[in-house]
């Protein structure tokens, strides 16, 4: 389950027995994405991602004469705003002068056994450090004096990658975060179906499947909470994928507030998936020295269909997200009086309900006035 860094090629390879996730430092500073999928046993990367003349409509501000490179078309791990990429950005920072251009470049990285907790947030965990390994990559805009630490954890026995980002203001003046997605996933093609779980009261989590297409597709909640209308989950499945065959990528946001999952297919049929906090009405002031931690995104890769994806999520959440006394045993049984009485109840009715419930093994009565 190691995380390897090829110093010569500037490539990161996260892998276990079932998956590989590969990134590269392009020009020694841009954190680009190379591959996410079935485990690669012998990775040589003799054929780099093609640099194609994209024309002047996809610019390279640092070197205009080099038309084969542009942030507007390469696959990235941390796409920004106002720096040459006109697709959906993963973050937006407003500075005291009102501008928002941020140019993150590689600063450093470190790996360690295990997985850190996210302060104040729900997140997956490990019982022993041998169960997972974590890579932290620090990006910096030295002019703007802001840093972003991208955290990647790969589990030893599960086909799972988790991601989150911590933003830090290293300057002397306050800045404002207006957008802070937890992760960006990039794919070199768009041959996918989207699987989502919309719904309503009493008909939650209706499975809807449809092809993705050029342009934007957004799943979100602006209610202040995730809920019945839309779940903080999406999957991208290859055409023909069913319960037991075919590739599928799952994306789940471990957060119960406003969320957004944004899928964009660009003009070259490349796919970007952003998962994280909904930018709608989001604003967070970062004073000098302060940090902001995004919630966690859990991504599962499965090569044997939707059932395999589900089993990976189940195993992860039972063993590495659930906590407490009832992690591995049945919960106590309770009865709620609402459906029995609605507003029409008194002491006599409640006692009768409690006595009958006790006779069949119910352990708790919840008084619910609606």
UniProtKB/TrEMBL annotation:
Reactions accelerated catalytically: Hydrolysis of terminal, non-reducing alpha-D-galactose residues in alpha-D-galactosides, including galactose oligosaccharides, galactomannans and galactolipids
Record-given protein name: alpha-galactosidase
Record-level GO BP terms: carbohydrate catabolic process
Listed GO MF terms: alpha-galactosidase activity
Main enzyme class: hydrolase
Organism, scientific name: Listeria grayi DSM 20601
Enzyme Commission number: 3.2.1.22
Start and end residues of each Glycosyl hydrolase family 36 N-terminal domain: 30-286
InterPro entries xrefs: Aldolase_TIM, Alpga-gal_N_sf, GH, Glyco_hydro_36, Glyco_hydro_36_N
Top-rank taxon: Bacteria
